[in-house]
Amino acid sequence: MFFHFKDQFPHLNLYWDKYLPHQKRLEMPAKTVLLEEGKISQQYIFIEKGCVRMFFNSNGDEKTVQFFFENEGLTSLESFVNGTPGAFTVETLEPSIVYLLHKKHVNRLMDEISHEPGFLKMMLRIFARRQMHYNNELISFIRDTPEQRYQNLLNNRPHIVQRIPQHYIASYLGVSTVHLSRIKNKLAKGKPHF
After folding, report:
1. Please, what's the largest Cα pairwise distance for the chain?
2. Are 134 and 128 in contact (CB under 8 A)?
3. Model-level pTM?
4. What is the 3-state secondary structure (H, E, C) of the chain?
5. What is the mean pLDDT of residues 169-175?
6. Hey, what domains does the chain have and what are their CATH numbers?
7. How far from chain centre, in Å, is Cα 54?
């Protein structure tokens, strides 16, 4: 479950290992919903294998917000922390192996580990990194054209373009699949031919 933390903070392995028996390992097919929009998030999700997307429904149209891959953890954070209905649906896009840790165990773990020196700095670094990522995405969505956003994906996160179906990428970029095809054709024509 906390494998991504184990690598970054090995001095805390005693705590991570203590909660290994409480995690639930699931092998699931693509298109399996892990959290439904409007439901309260009760699980922290860690992806061992596969890909997960987070999206919301806007008048019957799915708007993709984020993609998560191997060795990444996620939850609908506001829902998880505050016990409020979640704003997002989380579903697998590929056959996946995920680990779930219930909120009560996460809370106990956080209580125990919070006494460790450096814990607060560690959590602040993690949240700052994630917040910076979301801020950059928001700024890009406002500032950049869809073509520039697609080019950013190619340059900085090519695994998304390689693994994610085109209609989800179009949703993520805020364009239609037809518009995305035009962008791809335009970029392909602009490439030098040898």
Report:
1. 60
2. no
3. 0.86
4. CCHHHHHHCHHHHHHHHHCHHHCEEEEECCCCEEECCCCECCEEEEEEECCEEEEEEECCEEEEEEEECCCEEECCHHHHHHCCECCCEEEECCCEEEEEEEHHHHHHHHHHHCCCCCHHHHHHHHHHHHHHHHHHHHHHHHHCCHHHHHHHHHHHCHHHHHHCCHHHHHHHHCCCHHHHHHHHHHHHHHCCCC
5. 94
6. 3-117 (2.60.120.10)
7. 7
Distance CA 74, CA 92 (A): 12
SS3 labels along 21-66: HHCEEEEECCCCEEECCCCECCEEEEEEECCEEEEEEECCEEEEEE
- 89 bridge partner residues: 55
Structure tokens at 192: 């030098």
CB 68 within 8 A of CB 10: no
Say how far residue 13 (Cα) sits from the centre of its chain: 24
Tens digits of per-residue pLDDT, 69-117?
Answer: 998 989 998 899 999 999 999 999 999 999 999 999 989 988 888 888 8
- Establish how many alpha carbons lie within 13 A of residue 37's alpha carbon, considering only the half-sphere containing its beta carbon: 14
